[in-house]
Amino acid sequence: MSRSKSAEEVRAGYIEAMGQELGELFHATSSELTWIHWRWKQYRTLFGEKPSRIDLLNEAAPLFFRIVHNVFFEDTLLAIARLVGSPKSLGKPNLSVERFPPLLADKNLRDRVCKLIETAKKSARFAVDWRNRRLAHRDLDLILKQSPQPLADATRKKVEDALLALRDVLNCIERALCNAITMYDGSPTLGDAKALLYVIRDGLLRERDRRARLARGELDNECKPPEAV
Fold it and tell me: How far apart are CA 87 and CA 76, in angstroms?
């Protein structure tokens, strides 16, 4: 029976197939992109699939889940902007897909990857604008509504397109050098956002029942409000 490889085994496999420098870089970038997808999947599960889930979250804790919504969304934009960013800033190296082409010995592969990187950068322009003028910095003219250039429109569709473009870059390299690809848009299911939704749903059902029993005058211990956490 097969088993899942450990992170170190995956890293070692990339180094064996790609060489030390490229293998290390690919593993680090692939791991980063995997986590971006996992976080984005939590966002989609909570806020992007069923209106009934929004209703559930708003009934439970509207302010809290509004903050969660913004944090997940903005964190994804920042993560996308980082991966398409400059390979170096202030003299320090950055994790960026721009680092791949110089390490690819095969010219045809290098040319294909360069084109895919350009596509990824175009898809991520909106995220870079958000990073530059709203997330990493707060553009004062934008905040005061005095900027002639509005903030780039940021939608779930644009996020999905940018993530697809980044997957294409990495899978092009992995397919060529490892004869494999990674399914970045899959994710673990244990302990995820859907599990949280079930707990919230069950808690709200119990609370509705408690209030109904109170309204009927059934003032037993079960109907008393729970103690503060």
Answer: 19
